[in-house]
Amino acid sequence: MQYTIHSGQGKTKNHFTLGLDTDWQTIGDFKNLNLGGAKEGAKASDADIYQRGMGVYFLDRVELNSQWNVMFDLRYDNIHNELTDKMKQPTDLSGSADFSKPTGRIGLSYNPKSNFGLYTSWGQGFMPPATEELANNPAHLGGFNTNLKPATSYGEEIGIRGNAQKRFFYDVAFFHLATRDDFGRYRVPGRSLETFYQNAGDSRRYGIETAGTWYPVDPLVVRFTYTYSDFKYTNVKSLWGTFQDVWMPNSPRNLAWVDVEYTLRSKLFFGFDSNMVSRAYVDATNTGYAWGYGLFNPRLGYRWSSDKVSGDIMISARNAFGKFYIAFTEPDPDGNSYQPGPTSEWFISARIFLGGK
């Protein structure tokens, strides 16, 4: 639910929003003993998990004049998890886990010209343990992992955006994020085939995000994005030991994407996009890594329209040259850390819109 009030006259205007988010679900959760070799044993736990989340927030955006805008918001979240143990063997592991926290954000923007602006903001984050993290209990076969606490963060952003003669549009932002009590995997003696979760450590992240659109001539459009990420654990407890000041796994430092499309007489169009990723480490040891890659994705299509019906048909491909690459990595003690992406994929699509142009 959300309610917004607009007020003010002349150059100064105020936009105040009050809102409520709520959701809930019930999960039937049971586990069998993992005997290895794709074999499972007797039932180890059987429980019902009820979850409810609620967030209350207000947001206020003030237009001081045509150039200055101020924004701030406050939010309070409360998450309730409740487990009912249906086996109660050898003991009743029923229990609950509740997490709550207020967070806030403030921002400022300045637009000295209609085609140029600057903006900055500071905000907080709050991430409670997920269901899988809670329901994998290292102390018992069943019940909640009561050692987990929420991860928290705060960060800043500052950027510029604008356009040049409505031919080139750009947005460039520098960001910083500091986190506390990030989640990570670990294992315990005697249950080596199971994965558990802990508050593994803290991190600091710096980066630059850029996006642009260029119209060199009317039938041609070029779009691009680039992100540089300097993400490090300041300290972390992992499956391979405790480390300080190491690169975060599965976090490539360079991500780029470019898309080019040319339209012939507003009907036939062809183009391509390409996404490029630099190498990324697999785990906190910063030894094993996945190589970077670039994928080429062409497309060819035709658009048509009449007074009552319009549509398009397109042939496209992803990874047209069949590049072998690792789509993502994960710190897995079983050695299955490298997850390959698909080779060439080809698609034919058609769309019809009723109602004409």
Mean pLDDT: 94
CATH homology group of the domain at 2-217: TonB-dependent receptor, beta-barrel domain
Task: Tell me the major beta sheet.
Answer: 17 strands, antiparallel
Oligomer: single chain
The CATH architecture designation of the domain at 2-217 is: Beta Barrel
SS field, number of helical segments:
1
Number of strands: 21
Strand % is: over 45%
Secondary structural class: mainly beta
Distance between the first and last residues' Cα: 35 Å
- Helix fraction by DSSP (H/I, runs of at least 4): under 10%
> Any idea what the shape is?
globular
**CATH fold description of the domain at 2-217:** Maltoporin, Chain A
Order of helices and strands: EEEEEEHEEEEEEEEEEEEEEE
**CATH class label of the domain at 2-217:** Mainly Beta
Radius of gyration: 26 Å
The poorly predicted ranges are none
Question: Which characteristics define this entry?
Answer:
357 residues, Maltoporin, Chain A, 17-stranded antiparallel β-sheet, two-stranded antiparallel ribbon, globular
Any overview of this molecule?
The protein has 357 residues and is mostly beta strands. The protein has a domain at 2-217: TonB-dependent receptor, beta-barrel domain (Maltoporin, Chain A), CATH 2.40.170. Helix content is 1%, strand content 69%. The chain contains one helix and 21 strands. The protein has a 17-stranded antiparallel beta sheet that branches. A hairpin with a 5-residue loop joins β1 and β2. The chain is globular. It starts with a strand and ends with a strand.
